[in-house]
Amino acid sequence: MVGIQIWLAGGNPYGSYQHPVFPGTTVHVGWYAYPPPSLFLATPLALLPWPISAAIMLLICIVGFDRWVYLRSGRVGLPWLLLWLPFTQGIWIGQTTLLALVGLIWAEQAASEGRDIRAALLLALVMLKPQVGGVSVALLLLSALYDRRWRLVATFTAVCVALWGGTALLAGPQIYVQWIAGLSGYTSAIPDRPLLFPPFGPILGMVALLLWYRHGRGDIFGLALLVNTLIYPISVIYTAIAIAVVVIRWRPTWPWYPLALSWIIPLVFPLTVRTPDSIAGMTQAIIATGLLAGLLPALPQVWRTSSAA
Hints:
mainly alpha; globular
């Protein structure tokens, strides 16, 4: 929201500037990395006080995710947000990854129900953060083309042209030049290797393959979402929350206890030396706990209720 406020004041949201909320703090180039259409879409929220806009975003994410989890599994989804560290980290630092993921899963749900216009609108918005599920979006669009669902394809195209082209007309084409320049600063500040890379990437890949083999064969959308997560070249844990959607789709009876391991791992094995390999290894170990929720057995019930004594 700070980047949008800078833009509304006539500044470059993708450049370096003084933080308006924390005096004396410099925001580095690329700190705001969202595509230019987001400047217009999120302006209403940026005009609100920060606590209110944050609460609105959080409410949309929690309600949207929890409702989808209940629809797919008949279970409550809130514990995922609390027990699995990738979710908690993303929410804590104000990332919009969960918002994009919620849009994607409801776009797929709308497409499966034949609600083409709703699906197209959501897919166009999800493409403002393609790293969440770009492969899955492409799959849904190719499927729509194959099935000759022209309304979905046409609506998606029209909305994308309106968002990206309209932004160039209203803000000027230079806004895209500033965005591309800002992205170079953004990518240089974070680990940039896919989850399948060493040190533990091959093991993570084998665990993911086992999960697909045991529970996911036949679900092309879930497989696309899993592949997108594993190959995207950013090794930070909040970018991998789509793993939760894959596990929920493939194993609705997942156990909760593997998710708690995501908190235990960094406590037991803290990063005393921060190197690209150690950071990537910690990220991979934490994300593996989500995959294990789809593979490990449920704990036996200690207490059993029965109507008969």
